[in-house]
Specification:
Layout lengths: L6 E4 L5 H12 L3 E5 L4 H15 L3 E4 L6 H14 L5 E4 L14 H29 L2 E6 L12 H21 L4 E8 L5 H14 L3 H9 L11 H12 L10 E4 L6
Parallel strand pairs: 1-2, 1-4, 2-3, 4-5, 5-6, 6-7
Helix pairs in contact: 1-2, 1-8, 3-4, 4-5, 6-7
Bound molecules: nicotinamide-adenine-dinucleotide.
The site of nicotinamide-adenine-dinucleotide has 29 residues, from helix 1, helix 4 and helix 6.
Length: 260
């Protein structure tokens, strides 16, 4: 329970990797605010389970990460309802796969705003409190695509490369305040985000579903296995530990060897 007394705000945590972060942090005693879309009853059940696990409060924010005003209000609500946030994990993300000449402009704008700008707005709102408390952990879920490109994912690759740059800049600005800022960059994790991109990838690459699974999703990962959301969450826990106090401005790959 090394996070007892700390508060974590995790964006995009009603599903996939974000939910795994919330469960891992709550298991160490953190009060958590979850965020994201989904079925209201399922979210409320999850919120109650997180409070029970942590023995602390848990709250939910329905803020839309494409809306700067809602992001600022979410950080304020966290401060008022739970305290903190001491730990901010910007994790909400969406994906779209299309050849660039057909890439819908509104999809470009949406992906940049949710995957990149949302992290800027959340960090901007959370840093003053972290500086005042002289402790903070800023973690951004980037991707192997923050280091490597992939055809037909122009917006996502651009957003994730940008997120890595934002993280390094924030690390330098906050280093003397007991705050660290790091990216975790997973390879493929089997979540709804990955499942949803399969039909468009089949179309863009003229492949069968099986070819996409083996020749696109798993081909780049020498382990030939999906990374698990729990593995990613365990890295976030470590980044919150005392042992990680000097680890800032890094982009940590958890990609089964992909970027090697
Ligand atoms: P997911 O689809 O399971 O979860 C995405 C979460 O973001 C959900 O909770 C969803 O409700 C939320 N979300 C989406 N749009 C939102 C918005 N406008 N406002 C608020 N919340 C919103 O996907 P995941 O795979 O768990 O992805 C989580 C993060 O991990 C993303 O940033 C993604 O880019 C990154 N990532 C995923 C993989 C992978 O293979 N799954 C690999 C590398 C990085």
């Amino acid at each position: 329970m090394f996070l007892k007394g700390k508060t974590a705000l995790i964006t995009g945590s009603t599903s996939g990797i974000g939910l795994a972060y919330a469960k891992a942090l709550a298991a160490e005693g953190a009060a958590v605010m979850i965020n994201g879309f989904g079925d209201a009853d399922a979210i409320e059940t999850e919120r109650k389970a997180l409070a029970e696990t942590s023995g602390a409060k848990a709250a939910y924010s329905p803020a839309d990460m494409s809306r700067p005003d809602e992001i600022a209000a979410m950080v304020k609500a966290c401060e008022e309802q739970l305290g903190g946030p001491d730990i901010l994990i910007s994790n909400a993300g969406v994906q779209f796969v299309s050849p660039i000449e057909e890439f819908p402009i509104e999809k470009w704008d949406q992906i940049i705003s949710i995957n990149l700008s949302a992290a800027f707005h959340a960090i901007r709102a959370a840093v003053p409190g972290m500086k005042a408390r002289k402790w903070g952990r800023i973690i951004n879920t980037a991707s192997a695509h923050s280091l490597t490109a992939s055809p037909f994912k122009s917006a996502y690759v651009s957003a994730k490369h940008g997120l890595a740059g934002l993280t390094k800049t924030v690390a330098l600005e906050t280093a003397t305040f007991g705050i660290t800022a790091n990216c975790i960059s997973p390879g493929y994790v089997w979540t709804p985000l990955v499942e949803k991109q399969i039909p468009d990838t089949m179309k863009a690459r003229n492949m069968t579903r099986e070819q996409v699974m083996n020749d696109v999703l798993l081909a780049g990962q020498p382990t030939k296995q999906f990374v698990t959301a729990e593995q990613v969450a365990s890295m976030a826990l470590w980044l919150c530990s005392d042992g990680a106090a000097s680890t800032t401005g890094t982009n940590i790959s958890m990609d089964g060897g992909w970027t090697a």
